[in-house]
Amino acid sequence: MILETSRFGSLEVDENRLISFDEGILGFPRQRQYALIQTGAGSGFYWLQSVCTRDLAFVVCDPRLFVADYQVPVKLEELESIQLTQPDLAQVFIIVNKINDLLTGNFQGPLVINVRNRRGRQLVLSDKRYSTRHPLMRLPRPAALSKTA
Length: 149
What we know:
Blueprint lengths: L1 E4 L3 E4 L5 E4 L11 E6 L6 E6 L6 E5 L28 E10 L2 E4 L5 E4 L4 E4 L11 E5 L11
Parallel strand pairs: 3-10
Antiparallel strand pairs: 1-2, 3-4, 4-5, 5-6, 6-7, 7-8, 7-9, 8-11, 9-10
């Protein structure tokens, strides 16, 4: 399918890369269909691009890239809406934000995706070990230009 985006223009997206969020994502309850787009070969970051709204996209990543022992403390009953019955069939992403030169991740609002049916749900955790702006990494600053005489 061809997807129109504000960041990348027209993109051809394999329909196997589409994810449905029946309840939407926090703040965007009506946006339910997204495409998972790789940012580059070997990158751990992805774009979660809305299928319906060309200007809506989130940067996401696997939280274990930054916190190796991160686990989503959730009961399987909470994931019945995405038909997830086995935790090993889930892919977990966090939404990444940029604040100045710092990338942060929302560890309290993970996106849990059933890899078999590509249905997802954003959870809201009460676990206070992590925050909605958990520091991930600093971005390198551009080199300053020097003046030559």
